[in-house]
Amino acid sequence: MHVDIFTLFPGMFQGPFNESMLKRARERGLLSIDLHNIRDATTDKHHIVDDYPYGGGVGMVMKPEPIFAAVEAVYQGGPIILMTPQGHLFNQQVARSLAQEERITLLCGHYEGIDERVCQHLVTDQLSIGDYVLTGGELAAMVVVDAVSRLIAGVLTEGSTDEESHSANLLEYPQYTRPPEFCGWRVPDVLLSGHHEQIARWRRKEALRRTRERRPDLFAKLDLSGKLDVKLLQELEDG
Ligand code: SAH
């Protein structure tokens, strides 16, 4: 996958994109990322990228011309996604569908936001990473790139994203590693038993318990008509 990111602050991406999974994905040629400074697309002497809002009010608004020029200079297809608190909520399902794309373009706002003509006539999608306001779209774009790139075939071990939280509206079961006892707190016996069927049953039950407690909104979307789930839910009810 190729990602083009348009921003006024390309330096913000240096840490996250050069460590861990993203670094490896790039080194292995599964992911390439180009950072474009919108300021480089200005044509005026002072490289102005923002201006006062028409109609008055506090803050500055990013001007349309440099953004159109910057994107049009390199655009080769795929969705052009504006990061904005007014967009559709980004989630694992959106991440999965973006992971199928060959190219994506992410546009980061700053200050009070971006001239509406960019939203209407340049971008194809608008995404929000949550119901809060960030100072800029850079952190949001990093979240999207991170979540999407770990779903690209070959980036992680096959199967490792199948059972995790949000893959099927279910939060993941609790995980433990060595030692078996720490400060007197023991790992549940079933996990040490080597009994695969019992382990799978325990994990399913704990995933259901967690999802019901922490995310009733997700729990309500689950199809729990299967024989095992009916039984596990009854056990949870009975305490
Ligand atoms: N005045 C705007 C907010 C501007 S915040 C409004 O009320 O809607 C400045 C920039 O940060 C935005 O242009 C956007 O690119 C980014 N941003 C802020 N919050 C975000 C969020 N929750 N998700 C994605 N991008 C966000």
Fold topology:
Elements: E1 2-7, H1 14-17, H2 20-27, E2 32-37, E3 50-51, E4 61-62, H3 64-74, E5 80-89, H4 92-98, E6 103-108, H5 116-121, E7 125-128, H6 138-149, E8 181-182, E9 185-186, H7 189-192, H8 196-214, H9 216-219, H10 227-237
The chain binds S-adenosyl-L-homocysteine (SAH).
Report on this structure.
The protein is 36% helix and 17% strand. It has a 5-stranded parallel beta sheet with strand order 2-1-6-5-7. A two-stranded antiparallel sheet has the order 3-4. The model has no long low-confidence stretch (mean pLDDT 97). By secondary structure, the protein is of the alpha/beta class. It folds into 2 domains: 2-149, SPOUT methyltransferase, trefoil knot domain (Alpha/beta knot, 3-Layer(aba) Sandwich); 181-238, Trp Operon Repressor, Chain A (Orthogonal Bundle). The structure holds S-adenosyl-L-homocysteine. S-adenosyl-L-homocysteine (SAH) binds at residues 83-86, 108-110, 112-114, 128-130, 132-134, 136-137, 140.
Short description:
With 239 residues, the protein is an alpha/beta fold.
Oligomer: single chain
Provide the residue-averaged pLDDT.
97
The poorly predicted ranges are none
Query: How many strands, what sense, and barrel or not for the largest sheet?
Result: 5 strands, parallel
State the CATH class of the largest domain. Answer: Alpha Beta
As for the CATH topology of the largest domain, it is Alpha/beta knot
Radius of gyration: 23 Å
CATH-level-2 architecture of the largest domain: 3-Layer(aba) Sandwich
Distance between the termini: 47 Å
Percent of sequence in beta strands: 15-25%
Total count of strands: 9
The DSSP helix count reads: 10
Strand order in space, largest sheet: 2-1-6-5-7
Bound ligand species: S-adenosyl-L-homocysteine
Tell me roughly what share of residues is in helical segments. Answer: 25-40%
Tally of distinct domains: 2
Task: State the CATH superfamily name of the largest domain.
Answer: SPOUT methyltransferase, trefoil knot domain
Shape: elongated
SSE pattern, N- to C-terminal? EHHEEEHEHEHEHEEHHHH
Q: How would you classify the helix and strand content by structural class?
A: alpha/beta
